[in-house]
From TrEMBL:
InterPro entries: Glycosyl_Hydrolase_73, MGlyc_endo_b_GlcNAc-like_dom
Xref: Pfam families: Glucosaminidase (PF01832)
Domain spans labelled Mannosyl-glycoprotein endo-beta-N-acetylglucosamidase-like: 1-153
Keywords: Hydrolase
Naturally occurring in which organism (per UniProt): Peribacillus simplex
Coiled-coil portions: none
UniProt xrefs under SMART domains: LYZ2
Transmembrane segments: none
Domain of life: Bacteria
Gene Ontology terms for molecular function: amidase activity
Official protein name in the record: Flagellum-specific peptidoglycan hydrolase FlgJ
Length: 196
């Protein structure tokens, strides 16, 4: 898995996270891509752990050597990391961390929840001490912008439209800025799925 493949593979999970936890998918996808080497890191392949979450998950773990930054200097260290059964559990675990905080500070990540600006959300994550890389925010912002990941931040909502004689699918879809339109035959309404 690599590059835009990982983005596409985890995007549906990131969008589920958005609906449940109100965390921007672009932020989660950028984190996942860079923190797992686009899904190719040893930790991602052996443990389905795409965020470098330490500890164990339901008793499962993997021990791997990683690079940490100590006083701005990269250092190789051995750590015990959570081993997940799938990518989705890894994403959900990260979302739970943001939503519930840590045992010592339950409100540590509250600035991430509900934030609509990916730059502010990433800065808030960095400011908590989540990452030791001094270029953490910059790298993720660059990936979001270069890969147009904000397209995953759009929420789907259903809009109801009264269909009048002469209305067509293409005209209705265009009027609502959508490529999708579903008409319910025999009824006086249609449903358009919009991406705002």
């Amino acid at each position: 898995m690599g590059g835009s493949n990982e983005q596409g593979n985890i995007a549906p999970y990131a969008q589920k996270i958005q609906k449940e936890f109100n965390i921007l998918p672009s932020v989660v996808i950028a984190q996942a891509c860079l923190e797992s080497g686009y899904g190719t890191s040893l930790l991602a392949s052996q443990g389905k752990n795409i965020f470098g979450t330490e500890g164990d998950f339901k008793g499962e773990s993997v021990i791997i050597q990683t690079m940490e930054y100590v006083n701005g200097v990269p250092v190789q260290v051995w750590n015990k990391f959570r081993k997940y059964p799938s990518w989705e559990e890894s994403l959900r675990d990260l979302a739970n961390l943001y939503a519930k905080g840590t045992s010592w500070n339950r409100s540590l990540y509250t600035a991430v929840i509900g934030e609509k600006d990916y730059k502010k959300a990433l800065k808030a994550i960095f400011d908590t001490g989540y990452a030791s890389d001094p270029k953490y925010t910059e790298k993720r912002v660059n990936l979001i912008e270069a890969s147009a990941l904000t397209k995953y931040d759009a929420s789907n909502e259903e809009v109801y439209h009264i269909v009048k004689k002469g209305d067509s699918v293409s005209v209705s879809a265009k009027a609502y800025g959508s490529a999708q339109c579903r008409f319910n035959s025999g009824m006086a309404w249609s449903i358009l799925t919009l991406l705002k």
